[in-house]
């Protein structure tokens, strides 16, 4: 089965001025990998039409099978993602009655003013499939274009995650990722790096990474190993790490296995 490749475009000026941490990218990367896919690349851009268009140009020229955008679907003046996507596709932005009715049923009573806001959010690129929002308000959209699937998702984290799980996951695959996370004390990264290099050569389908840090004044090294290859015996990597650490006077703890 061919691995699905995903290109992520995070849209929002707040992400680029230090106002908001880009947790959506972190969550999507982890989730996509756990499903057996991979993130080809990501871009973060301002709420500006030209930047959104440039990001879509880059994404659609990549080998990625799926493009995901997050952010800019709300009712305010700077929520221009859906309009920008429609313009880039060369399509009209049209009111989707199904998306509008779904929102209005969940949010009664509806005033004339709020209805205009809902109509803005329910206006989607012509020919797109609406993605109903069961957590918030703004719907997303799915468009098939140039042989790829484009998913336009909200930027609010819990809304984005729910929509991703409902609508995007079936196109990526099923959970196959396995791995370990170890905690090492008394060993510095420079000491163990030759072993990590050798392990990556001996286990080419395993992602192995070390993360040094200081905790309560103590040097701590976390080493993780993850794979989507079902033939790999992941605990063999742990055994080699443990042998090295113990031989060199350190301590190692298995924090996670799954």
Description of the molecule:
- The structure is a single chain.
- The protein has helices spanning 13-16, 23-34, 49-60, 81-89, 97-106, 112-121, 157-168, 189-202, 234-247, and strands at 5-11, 38-45, 66-70, 93-95, 123-125, 129-131, 140-145, 148-153, 178-185, 206-215, 218-227, 251-257.
- It is α/β, with parallel strands linked by helices and 258 residues long.
- The strands form 3 sheets. It has a 6-stranded mixed β-sheet, with helices on both faces.
- Strand 6 (129-131) and strand 7 (140-145) form a beta hairpin.
- Helix 3 crosses helix 4 (81-89) and helix 8 packs antiparallel against helix 9 (234-247).
**Order of strands side by side in the largest beta sheet?**
2-1-3-8-7-6
Number of distinct helices: 9
Mean pLDDT score, rounded?
93
Strand content: 25-35%
Shape: elongated
Sheet with the most strands? Answer: 6 strands, mixed
Our Rg estimate from Cα atoms comes to 22 Å
Order of helices and strands: EHHEHEHEHHEEEEHEHEEHE
Helix percentage range: 25-40%
Task: Kindly state the number of beta strands.
Answer: 12
